[in-house]
Write a structure and sequence with these properties.
Elements lengths: L1 E3 L4 H11 L6 H8 L3 E5 L7 E4 L2 E2 L5 E4 L6 E5 L4 E2 L12 E11 L8 E7 L28 E6 L13 E6 L6 E4 L1 E3 L6 E3 L8 E8 L4 E8 L10 E4 L9 E9 L5 E12 L20 H36 L18 H7 L8 E4 L3 E7 L6 E8 L6 H13 L8 E7 L2 E7 L7 H4 L11 H21 L14 E3 L5 E3 L28 H6 L4 H17 L4 E3 L6 E3 H10 L17 H14 L10 H9 L9 H8 L5 H9 L15
Antiparallel strand pairs: 1-2, 2-19, 3-6, 4-5, 5-19, 6-18, 7-18, 8-15, 8-19, 9-10, 9-18, 10-11, 11-12, 13-14, 15-16, 16-17, 20-21, 21-22, 22-24, 23-24, 25-26, 27-28
Helix pairs in contact: 7-9, 7-12, 9-11
Bound molecules: 2-acetamido-2-deoxy-beta-D-glucopyranose (6 copies).
EC number: 2.7.11.1
Keywords: ATP-binding, Cell membrane, Glycoprotein, Kinase, Lectin, Membrane, Nucleotide-binding, Receptor, Serine/threonine-protein kinase, Signal, Transferase, Transmembrane, Transmembrane helix
Organism: Panicum hallii var. hallii
């Protein structure tokens, strides 16, 4: 926007009086022809004379150079100025100019080459880009016939012209070797200290250029935009411009670029003869284009950004991986019906952490139903045993869970308490209270605890305890629960060496096995009742059979099936005991490791009950309630008559032979006892 203002006549007269110039018609006529002052607060609609790359942008910026390398651009105020007063000895009058500029470079804090405000005799004088700033050329630099005065804002140190640095303000007369120059910056009004400014900082700055005719002094002052003009100029020079400039002259800007693509902008401009330059309306100024200089870009875009992007992608990938892993690692299966058992449901994550990720060092044992791990629950610090049972079928799961959860509700001191469960795909996890002394079979047979000999009192208490636990399952709970897998390795010992029956109900799960082709006969060879091997139907009586074998095992300290010296001959414990009984040497059957330190009556009772319970005919076995009564002495057990003994020895009813025949055609699960323990 241009404002061509003719000074009001009255002001002009006042001025003439003040400076003491004799009143004549000359200044008035001169005033009629001269544009004495102008202000551009932005250049929209301004009719400047442009050449080279200079243009006015739609937003009103005077763009002297666009980002073309090795280019130059100039812009002139369109009309000539009459600088000298019209007297015969007319000297160049005082004038002042101010402008706002901005230098935008592709590099941070580095640009080429600079821009000037100049006064020149014509609008068409030879000039070159790069170091000549669009003001001079290779031949006329420094030639007094140029009649050019300029203020340079130079961002390139050219030693040919004696440049002090690559960021300076210089006063030039007829050439680029400055009369005076100084680093770009300003002096604080308050304390006179100098503050550097960077010309190519991409920030707009303001410059004031003032010529004092009386003192023949040029003052150039630089300041950040929006700062009042500092009192102390940045650089000044005594310089009689009357010796330099022509009477009729043109004022304008020139600029050039070198190899670094730089845009030189002028945002606003004002000029006045014989008075301070009118102030530019800073609020009206167009905005400098936002530019990410290459220096910063090379850091931010070319190194930091790719690295940051890669890092971001990596971390997103890692998070996704962790989430997916977490999803799969801790994935569970949950059905609607389980809401009833909510309190008994453990999260897989808790169990995973409790057992140290099911680490092998926490493995307590491997049984027929799966691996058992020791664990400590994260919040309660409660010690637990976690049994991992492979199970693919959802069939029967509801009934099974309902049963074990309901069993877990009532505490029986002869049952290992089930604390809860968790389900995953193909896996069921059962959480039991932890039994610090492990399983009984390890004490009975050669194992880790094999050298610890359980006393007779301990054994008798364990036998009675298991009988009581089994009675509870068979008769004292809401419904009949058949354990199906009674054996020494399923009897766990608590901290007081009380026997506790574990794994109850678990066998039931295998009645609904995933594979309909196989009939799972659950149980352990040696403990299998003959009728179970025949029909596969578990009943309380089949538990009683296994209990009988168990009693014999504990009393005699021998496995249900003994491998004798020769590999082929396997002797059933029952047969061995029967043999001894028939020979009248009952006492020889009691575990020799007790070294006779046992109660003979109790041992006889236990052996008798063991034999009665392991009767081949289910109907001939006592119930668990009767067994408890025998132990309690309320009822005398029947005598082992000859018929009974003979009947038990009939070979075709031999439980082992029947079950081993069966095992050749039918898969027998849970053979853990034969394969070497839980
Ligand atoms: C420039 O001129 C156009 C039309 O001539 C006008 O609409 C616009 O307001 C002017 N802009 C300025 C900043 O004077
Ligand atoms: C710079 O200006 C020149 C001359 O006006 C023009 O040919 C060129 O395309 C411009 N370059 C850019 C990047 O604007
Ligand atoms: C200065 O320029 C004028 C006119 O172009 C020329 O005649 C003169 O020789 C030049 N002087 C020098 C020292 O180059
Ligand atoms: C001088 O004054 C300016 C403005 O008050 C202040 O920012 C600067 O720190 C001062 N410098 C010294 C050396 O006191
Ligand atoms: C200002 O810049 C000059 C030249 O680059 C340097 O010597 C001086 O130390 C700078 N001064 C301050 C205060 O930064
Ligand atoms: C400046 O130069 C002109 C012409 O050479 C001369 O008339 C005038 O006296 C000079 N001014 C000063 C202050 O020296």
């Amino acid at each position: 926007m241009a404002m061509f203002v003719m000074k009001p006549i009255s002001l002009m007269l006042l001025y003439l009086l003040l400076v003491g110039v004799a009143i004549s018609t000359a200044p008035l006529t001169a005033g009629n022809n001269d544009h004495r002052q102008f202000v551009y607060s932005g250049f929209a609609n301004a009719s400047l004379t442009l050449d080279g790359t200079a243009s006015i942008t739609p937003s009103g910026l005077l763009e002297l150079t666009n980002s073309t390398a090795m280019s130059m651009g100039r812009a002139f105020f369109p009309d000539p100025l009459r600088l000298r007063d019209p007297s015969p000895t007319g000297t160049v009058q005082s004038f002042s100019a101010s402008f706002v500029f901005g230098i935008i470079s592709v590099y941070d804090m580095m640009s080429s080459h600079g821009l000037t405000l100049f006064v020149a005799p014509s609008k068409n004088f030879p000039a070159m880009p790069v170091q000549y700033l669009g003001l001079f050329d290779g031949s006329n630099n420094g030639n007094a016939s140029n009649h050019i005065f300029a203020v340079e804002l130079d961002t390139w140190q050219n030693v040919d012209f004696g440049d002090i640095n690559n960021n300076h303000v210089g006063i030039d007369v007829n050439g680029l070797t400055s009369v005076r120059s100084y680093p770009a910056g300003f002096f604080h009004d308050q304390n006179g200290t100098f503050r550097n400014l960077t010309l190519s900082s991409q920030e707009a700055m303001q410059v004031w250029v003032e010529y004092d005719r009386e003192k023949t002094r040029v003052d150039v002052t630089l300041a950040p935009l929006a700062m009042a003009k500092p009192r102390e100029p940045t650089v000044s020079a005594i310089c009689n411009l009357s010796d330099v400039l022509t009477d009729v002259a043109y004022i304008g800007f020139s600029s050039s670029t070198g190899k670094i693509n730089t845009q030189h902008y002028v945002l606003g401009w004002s000029f006045a003869m014989n008075s301070p330059a009118p102030s530019i309306d800073l609020t009206m100024l167009p905005k400098l284009p936002r530019h990410h200089p290459k220096g910063r870009r090379s850091w931010v875009l070319e190194i930091v950004l790719p690295v940051a992007t890669a890092a971001l992608l990596l971390s997103l990938g890692a998070i996704a991986f962790l989430l997916v892993r977490r999803h799969f690692r801790y994935a569970e299966v949950r059905d609607n019906w389980e809401s009833d058992f909510g309190p008994h449901r453990f999260s897989y994550k808790d169990l995973f952490h409790a057992t140290g990720g099911f680490e092998n060092k926490n493995l307590l044992g491997v049984g027929g139903f799966g691996r058992v791990y020791k664990g400590v629950l994260p919040r309660s610090r409660l010690k637990v045993a976690v049994k991992k049972v492979s199970h693919d079928s959802r069939q029967g799961m509801k009934e099974f869970i309902a049963e074990i959860v309901s069993l877990g509700r009532l505490q029986n001191r002869n049952l290992v308490q089930l604390l809860g469960y968790c389900r995953r795909k193909g896996e069921l996890l059962l959480v039991y209270e932890y039994m610090p002394n492990g399983s009984l079979d390890k004490y009975l047979h050669n194992g880790k605890e094999g050298n610890v000999v359980l006393s007779w009192a301990q054994r008798f208490r364990i036998i009675k305890g298991i009988a009581s636990g089994l009675l509870y399952l068979h008769e004292e709970w809401e419904k009949v629960v058949v354990h199906r897998d009674i054996k020494a390795s399923n009897v766990l010992l608590d901290d007081e060496m009380n026997g506790r029956l574990g794994d109850f109900g678990l066998a039931r799960l295998y009645d609904h096995g995933a594979d309909p082709q196989t009939t799972h006969v659950v149980g352990t060879i040696g403990y299998l009742a003959p009728e179970l091997a025949r029909s596969g139907n578990a009943a309380p009586a089949t538990d009683v059979f296994a209990f009988g074998i168990f009693v014999l095992e504990v009393t005699c300290g021998q496995r249900p099936v003994n491998h004798q010296n020769t590999q082929d001959s396997q002797v059933m414990l029952v047969d061995w005991v029967l043999d001894k009984v028939q020979k009248g040497s009952f006492g020889d059957t009691v575990d020799s490791r007790l070294k006779g330190r046992h109660d003979g009556g109790e041992a006889y009772l236990a052996l008798k009950i063991g034999l009665l319970c392991s009767h081949p005919f289910a109907d001939a076995r006592p119930t668990m309630r009767q067994v408890m009564q025998y132990f309690g002495g309320e009822i005398q057990p029947p005598d082992l008559c000859f018929e009974v003994l003979a009947c038990m020895q009939r070979e075709e009813l031999d439980p082992y032979i029947i079950s081993s025949r069966l095992s050749s055609t039918t898969r027998i699960s849970a053979m853990s006892d034969v394969s070497g323990g839980r």
